[in-house]
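Hey, I was hoping to borrow your eyes for a little while. For a while now I've been wondering how a particular protein folds. The fold is given in discrete form, as structure tokens running alongside the sequence. Could you read through the record and tell me how the tokens relate to the sequence? Take your time with it, there's no hurry, and the full record follows here:
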Amino acid sequence: MLNLKRTKIILLAITACLLWSSAFAFIKIGLDYCAPILFAGTRFILAGILLLPFCGGAKKYFKSVGKNFKAVVILSFFQTFLLYSLFFWGMTLVSGSTGAIVTGSSPLIAAIAAHVFLKDDKLTLRKMFCIFSGIFGIILISFESQFTSAGSFKELLGILILLAATFASSIGNVIVAVDKSDMSPIALNSAQIGLGGFMLLILSFVLEGYPQVAITKQFVLALLWLSFISSAGFSIWFYLIKKERVKVSELNMWKFIIPIFGALISWMLLKNDTPSVMSVIGMLIVSLSVLFFFIKNPSLVE
């Protein structure tokens, strides 16, 4: 692959991950004013609507959705409904920075899922070394949260729920990678994210009862930003996954930067979320692992 193409892929991957990094702090802000599943459902329905003007017209959009409806439903279940019902639940039990760091385990789970389900995306020793180095940094944070927090069981439960969410996301990545339809990544994201948001909204009525929302400036800003990063981030990611020869496991290595910037943003915006020595050490290990992988293995695709 030409360096220009490789650079474009890397910049787009970093852009998506930087967008997602800001989600943790804004989710914590929004959860102060709205029940978690209701918040998630509203966010993704709005995100799906935001993408509609970029889908090539209503007739083309609905024809494409109808033609690929089964794939859209399956993807929306794993990539939006299951992922974010677990994610928002988990985020109510952990701090913003811990949520960012634990979610950074997704490259390992994505690599395992790709190894099992995709014939041309197998684990290598270098890949496993870098992934487990990154996971070690995450374990330092999780270990500290479990044994130093006053609500240690609550933190541990939140961590386990967030890990389950990353598994659902990895399955969604595999579904997009094997999808051979001609549906554009933007239309696919709009359809799956909107449908998944509608599923979450129904679930919120069942589990959370009558919707109760405190409409404040902080809540509206958090909702709008989260909707934007969902529509933009996943459209970019689906575009990259569907590109020929881009490996799911290697692309997901860039998600290791999410804990770094997610924790930094949480520490800047959230009053009760502060860094510790262990969390900083964990962040350094995670950063070095992804840098080592791409320095020693410079080709993102083969």
Residues 1 and 301 are 7 Å apart (CA to CA). Residues 3-296 form one domain. The mean pLDDT is 78. The chain has one domain: 3-296.
